[in-house]
Amino acid sequence: MQRSYLLWVLPLPPAAGPQGPAFALAERIAAGGAYGLLQRTLRDRLGLVYGVHSELERHSDCGLWWLRLDCAGEDEQACREAVEACFDTMCGSGLDIEDFERASAGLRAQWTIEDDDPAAVMQRIALEYWAADGQGSLDERLARLNALTVAEVQAVLKQAWAQRALFGWGPFPLRPRRSA
After folding, report:
1. Which of 124, 144, 161, 164 gives 20 to 30 Å between its CA and that of 154?
2. Among 101, 103, 53, 87, residue whose Cα is nearest residue 157
3. Is there a contact between 32 and 106 (Cβ–Cβ < 8 Å)?
4. pTM for this structure?
5. How far is CA 26 from CA 5, 10, 39, 89, in A?
């Protein structure tokens, strides 16, 4: 069996910018675990033949959304088409309100837990997530998240998706693991 890897890279605005929560929510809707739209789309089309890895990397002056998909070499084209179709749906016909609400609740919970984690707080400070005027407090971020609309999330996603870059590599042979 051979492995292939696909990597989509989308630009993000600075972390302290007003669009930060919208991108965090878009990423959660698309790739937020087993209930993310991307995982459901891939599962419906291909079964369980892939791995999805998504991460927002945000700094004070720029950011990137890294979306990597691992799949069997023979499924590469089908996986690529499924990802493209998923994002075309999210950017075009709209986001499902149930996905939007589930992702919002998950992001609120994640931010609340992280706010109690000294390591996560220090990481945000080190990456200059917080603006000098204090707009990065948990209450402020939650207020911005709660004020978001489906249309706002869709607009920032559409803009980033239009500027995406796609990289692919593989197929690589999978070697069987040796037993000890």
Report:
1. 124
2. 87
3. yes
4. 0.80
5. 22, 12, 14, 13
Q: How far is CA 1 from CA 48, 59, 82, in A?
A: 15, 39, 21
Q: What amino acid is encoded at 57 in this protein?
A: E
pLDDT at residue 162, as a whole number? 93
Percent of the chain with pLDDT over 90: 27
Which helix (H) or strand (E) is 5 found in, with range? strand 2-12
Of the CA atoms within 13 Å of residue 72, those in its CB half-sphere come to 8
Q: What are phi and psi of 130, to 5 degrees?
A: -90, 130
Spatial distance between the Cα atoms of 162 and 40, rounded to a whole number of angstroms: 23
Helix and strand element counts for the chain (H, E): 7, 4
Beta strand residue intervals within 16-62, DSSP E: 50-58
pLDDT digits (tens, 9 = 90+) for 133-178: 344 678 888 898 999 999 999 998 999 999 999 998 876 555 555 5
- Amino acid 45: pLDDT: 81
Query: pLDDT by residue (tens digit) across 19-41?
Result: 888 888 999 998 887 778 888 88
Q: Give the span between the Cα atoms of 27 and 156, in whole angstroms.
A: 11
Residue 29 to residue 25: CA distance in whole angstroms? 6
One-letter amino acid of 75: D
Q: Check the CA dihedral 8-11-27-114 and report its sign.
A: positive
